[in-house]
Here is the input.
Amino acid sequence: MSFQMPFTAAVSGGGWGTIDVPVYSYQVAYADRTIVIDTAVSAADSAKDPSFDRAAYDRMEAAMTSAADIVITHEHPDHIGGLVDHPALKDVLGHTHLTQEQVDHPEKMFGLKFPAGALDGYKPLSYDHYHAIAPGIVLIRAAGHTPGSQMVYVKTASGQEVLFLGDIAWR
Here is the structure.
């Protein structure tokens, strides 16, 4: 799925023409575990988009259920929506690492809300600069986009390094 926005919102001086902004969810697969980074848009919001791929969304939901860890780069609906809308939310929250700021700033979810009581007893993650969640996976605090912004550093078994930025930079 994707949505459109003015080009100048992504690139300073880019003009008022529109650009397509794709919505992603990533699965990092290791021999003994998987980790989901971001969870796209809620199913209800996604279904309104003609480019919505239900089979891909179902694969993401299944990946969230079986993942060892789920992390969210920030609390905007196109990154946290699939988590909020997950049919087994209480189960997946058990292996989800929401930061204290992501939990404390529901206004950044622009109307999207966790179901009443869903976060009762949930212990958010709190860290200063870096937090390792698994071998080769480190969360890095990131200033700017939202109070709960973080980057996700991944080092693969082959030694390749990948940095998931959320919306800190697009180009």
Summary: The mean pLDDT is 92. The CA atoms of residues 45 and 125 lie 27 Å apart. Helices lie at 43-46, 54-66, 77-84, 89-93, 100-104. DSSP finds five helices and ten strands in the chain.
